Structure formats: structure tokens, C-alpha cells
Amino acid sequence: MQKYLLHLFMFLLLLPALPGNAQQDTLLIGVDARKNKGPLKPIWAWFGYDEPNYTYMKDGKKLLTEIAALSKVPVYVRVHSLLVTGDGTAALKWGSTNAYTEDASGNPVYSWTIIDKIFDTFIERGMKPIAQIGFMPEALSVKPSPYRHHWQPDNKYGDIFTGWAYPPKDYQKFATLVYEWVKHSVARYGKAEVESWYWELWNEPNIGYWKGTTEEYIKLYDYTADAVKRALPTARIGGPEVTGPNWDVSARFFKTFLDHVVSGKNYATGKTGAPLDVITFHAKGAPKVVNGMVQMNMAAQLRDIDKGFEIVASYPSLKKLPIIIGESDPEGCAACSEAFHPANAYRNGTMYSSYTAASFARKYDLAAARGVNLAGAVTWAFEFEDQPWFAGFRDLATNGVDKPVLNVFRMFGLMQGNRLEVSGATNYDYRQILDSSVRGAKRDINALAAGDEHSVSVMVWNYHDDNIIPAQSSPVKIKIKGLPATRVLLKHYRIDAAHSNAYEAWKKMGSPQHPDASQIAQLESAGQLQLLSSPAWLQPENGEIVVPNDLPGQGVSLLQLTW
Predict the structure, then answer these.
(1) What is the per-residue pLDDT for 168?
(2) How far, CA to CA in Å, does 194 sit from each of 42, 200, 283?
(3) Fold of 37-414
(4) Residue 204 bears catalytic tag
(5) pLDDT number for residue 532
(6) DSSP helix/strand/coil, 500
(7) Of the residues 200, 204, 241, 338, which is catalytic?
(8) Which residues contact 507 (CB under 8 A, 6 or more apart)?
């Protein structure tokens, strides 16, 4: 009887796939619960954003609470502009804390009020700062004017890299600022807490964010790292946060920095080398519009990651240091809305979520292939206060309503234990995507699996670089073997047009820009991670079950088995 019910359950699951996919071959993906590939590090539990003052605003606090709740481990958060001069007014691509000013005699005046407000918001939720040391206070900048910019998504304002992007006129004063900040943090949060943070210098110093030379950045790093270590010898400090390691100019900057860390003369101490506890760089994809359709380019992002790993691996003394991909995204500008940048039209719907699932899985593969220690990959996406609904920013939520992409991270948060071996006639591996991205007739239908003594979780995605609407569904069977239990509970979570998708729910409402309270409640509910079907108890045969899955294009499923 139990065997009959199991077969009936599988048949019913498969029914929706039959009409639209009668001519398609069913793809079989295998997962072996007995074959683990080492711990599934929570490299996804890292987030960041440009605008630090959004942190303690209404929707900012709400989203941070949700991000913290989705993870079993502390989430790390990285924000810009923690030392920028200003009154703390939030704006796109801008933030300030007024941490450093000078009196009439040129003496330092420190104010930690706004930084504390930001970090308190993280700590209260069990999160950890990646404390970004930057940018340059107005009173220390060698070229302070103009200082404040007023950037807008149409990019008509022009250059945003103003006085805050320049080197200090006094390196020792900057070092003392850093020293006082670290000491203040220890006094406020305790030594053990601050030891668990990461400290880093600047952001993307190989492009406009740094208006000095490579050597001037290295000099500032030496003074900064020395100040951090003097204040707290056990603090973790790193850099250089270059972007695009696959570009020749970025690779040169990266290598010059690492050469100095290993064997250069330290500007601050006169000794050989510099402290380095974590290595950071950025990696971005490159979407474009082709014949009116958004076409992603995952290969560009993965090539950046692979080149960064290759560079780190070439330094024997540094190869095992933790690596944080400080920004790891489908493209470069979170605050560039869809209205002025049509290639960003992927951000509201399921293309962003499927891209995220597929790309994160390949980051594990790339790190393993290069033999490096990937600790985290920061998703540079948060929320933008007081902006239109679903405006096509690279964000995780809009006006307090979660987007589909956030549900991928909820899925990651449900996975635990060791990575499990995935096999079968999958259409792509990381090498193929590095070579040519996901183009042509084949879709990237693949899986990431994890398991421990009492569970197996399998994330399956159906991704393609071309955002074809409607995207074709694909029949998939997931065979899980090596199960030690005689009875398992299956929960099947799904992100697609009808599940875990507030964007589609909003469009069905008529795309209101001023939804009422009832509509907002409906959207908030639609934005949560949802089950495809009711949980069901299954009986493995010889430790094996097969779960059919009709997976829509750009859809993501999470199969969670517990016993």
C-alpha cells in the first residue's frame, strides 16, 4: 500500500509537466547522500550596499531583520562611506557619518554617533560588520572641493568621485582616526565581538573610487593596517577590494598590492611586508539588451572570480588566507534603475533569482578548482527608501516587500551540512560557463546539494542567459540515493511566476504605485518563500527516492528531505 501511494504521489507531481513538455526528454539529476565534498560554507550569507544611512531607516531595519533571520550563521554586512563627512542624510550612492572633523586650530574632532547607530543595528540582529575604512573625511582630503555629490539614476549629474575619493593630506592623522575608531569599537562592543569582524580599506581603488596612485593606496593601507593592529592586535584586516581582476589593469593593481604585502617595505613601520588577514576583490557580470531582450553574461562574472582566485593561488604564503568577494553581482550599479538602464530589467523577477542560484553554486566549484579558501561572496543589493515600486534597482526588497531573489537566500539558509555529489546529464558545468556563458538551445539545469545526519537538501535551477518570456518549462527527475532512513518528509519550495514572487502579484494588481494596506499585506505574503505543494512523507526503496519536477524557465526549486 505504501509503495502504491508513493507511486501515485510521484505521478501526480508529474502531471503538470505532461502537456507542455511531451516532446522533451526528462533530465535526470542524481544526488548521493553518502558522497560529501566537504562543508557547504555559507558563502551566500554576506550582503552590502552603498548607502549606509538606509541601515537604520524603516524599511532598512525590516530587511536587515529578514536577512538575519534567514541564516543559521551570523550574516556579514559591508557598507560604503563610513568616514564620509556630512549630516547623515541618505541619498542614492551617498552616505555620511561625520566621524571626523577638525576645529579651528586643525585638531581632530571625532564623532561616532552615526557609525554607532549603523553598527548597533547590525549587532542587535546578530550580524557582523565588514568595517570598510573609507572614504576620506573632507578635512583630510588633499582635494576636498567639491565634496558632496547629488547623483541620480539618469546619470546626468556626472562624476560622483569628488573630494571623498582622494588621498589624505596627512597619513598619520588618518591612521590616528582609524586607531581611535577601532579602540572605540572595542570599548562599545567588547574585544571578542570586534575580533569577529573584518576590517578593510576602501573600495575599488583601481577605478574612480580612489583618486590616488597605486603606491598611494598601498601607503594608506600600511598606515591603516598598522593602526588597526595597534588598537586591537587580533583584529582582521584586509584588502584591496579591486574590481574586475580579469582586466589587465586590475590584475596589475592586485598583484602589486600582494607583492608589497609579501615583500615590500612598509610605509608605516619600515619593516618588510604588511599585515593581511583576508583578501578581497570584486566580480561583476555584464548584461545587455539584444533584440529587445535582456541577455545576461554569467561568464564575465565567473571569469573575474576565477582570475582573482588564480592570482591569490600564485602566492604560496597567501593561498590559504580567506577570500571575500566584496561585491559579486550580475552587473555593477545597484542604484541604476531599469528606467534608464534597460539591461537591468532582469532584477524584479525570476531571472535574478535563477542567476543567483546558478552563479553561487559555481563559486564553490571555482574555489575548489583553484585550491583557495573562499569565505564569502557579498551580494551588493539592499533596498532604496522612498523609491517607486519595482523600479528595477538591484535590491532585495522594494518598499518593504521582498523580491524573488531574496527567496534564493532563504533557500540557501535551509541547506546545511556537507556538499553532496551531484551527477547526471546536466547541461552545463562551471568550465562551460566560463568559456561561453549560458547561450544557445541548451538551458543550465543543474543542482547544488547538501546533507547531514538527518537531512538532504537539493537546490535545482532552470537558468538561461536569455530572458525569454514565457520561458519553457523543463521536466526534471531528481534521484536521491544513500538515504539512511525508511521514511522521509519532503518539503518542496519553489520560486517561479506563481510562487515566492511579489513582482508577479503586483503586476496582477495592475502595478499600483500607491497600494493600499490590504494590497501591501498581499504583496508581503507573496514575497515570502512558498511551498509548491504540501509536505509529504515518502518511503525510500533501498535508500533511494525519485522526485519528478516540472521546472519553469528561470525557476528554482529546493527539495528538503528530513528524517
Answers:
(1) 98
(2) 20, 13, 27
(3) TIM Barrel (3.20.20)
(4) yes
(5) 98
(6) coil
(7) 204
(8) none
